[in-house]
Each structure stands twice: as C-alpha cells, then as structure tokens.
Amino acid sequence: MEIREITAGDVEGMGEIDGTIESPEYLHLERSGEGLAVGWRAEPRPLRERLIDGNRLADEQLFSLRQVASGHDEGLALMAQHEGQVVAMLLAQPRPGLRTMRLVDVRIDYDFRRQGLGTALVYRAIHEARRRELRAVEARTLTNNVPAGRLLLKAGFDLAGLDTLRRSNHDLVKEAVTLFWYAALT
After folding, report:
1. What is the CA radius of gyration of the chain?
2. Spatial separation of the C-alpha atoms in residues 75 and 148, rounded to whole Å
3. What is the distance between the terminal CA atoms of the chain, rounded to a whole angstrom?
4. CATH 3.30.1950.10 matches 2-23+46-184
C-alpha cells in the first residue's frame, strides 16, 4: 500500500473509488428546551431501512480536487494505491480566516475498508494542519453516516455542533442532519 499526493493526472481516477456508504443505524437527535436554553442529545439507533448510498464524488468536490492537485489552490490531496489500483483518497483545504484545515472528502474503496486507510489519511491531514500551525481540523458528516462519525471519533475529533436545516427544512425528520466535528490542535 502506498500513500502519495494526487497529481493533476490522477484526478479523473478518483471517481472510480467505490465510496458507497452502508450503515444499519443513524444518530438520532433529540431536542430539549427552547430559545437559548436548547440542548441536543445524540444516540445511535437502527435505521428503518439499511442505508446504502452510492456517495459519488460531487462536481464541487471534483473541482476542488482539481484545483488542489494542479497547485491552483492550497490544500492536501492524497491517494492510496494497492497493486496499481486507487483505493482511497483524502481532500483537505485550509481555512486561513478560521485557522483550520477542513476535511472536504475522505473516501475508501468499499473492498478496502477496515484496514486503517481512513485513519492513516486523516492523521496525515492532522499532521499537515499542525505543520501549518493551525488550531484545528474540521469535518462535516450527516447523522446517517455513522461510519464516518466513528472514524472521526477514533482520530480524536469531538462532535462540536449540528445544523438541522442545512440541507432542507426537514433534515431532522429525514435523519440527515449535518454534524460538525473538530479535532483541536492547540
């Protein structure tokens, strides 16, 4: 297994990574209180139907990946190869105004999961953020992507907040609330 930086010539191959998200559970959010005294509780619960989402690389992510790989934007674009096959990638970009590094995308090919690739890539992003003297690494997941949340917890991230209306006015009902994660570095 080799982990290296993505070059401009590698970008098109990143769409071939099978980034399917599969999970039998989601993080159920329960709200208590109101106004400024609102509180949230999150706990894993079974999904009504097992989640299987193809999780294709979005155009916005692909554009950012091209920009970073070609050197037009700052960031970290890494890939893992096994016997010539691309099996994982990570895209992270600094947010200088916030002094953070944002994990834009981490994807591991379905057949190569649970082998430490995700952890290794996330640790490389944390290392890069420390090298740049940033204060934190940040990430976003959805409540229905429990595997991503577990990876972030394993890598030292804390659940820092949520947005129940980021994607639609019914995210909470659809079990797809956006979660914000931070790994503090200083």
Report:
1. 17
2. 21
3. 31
4. no
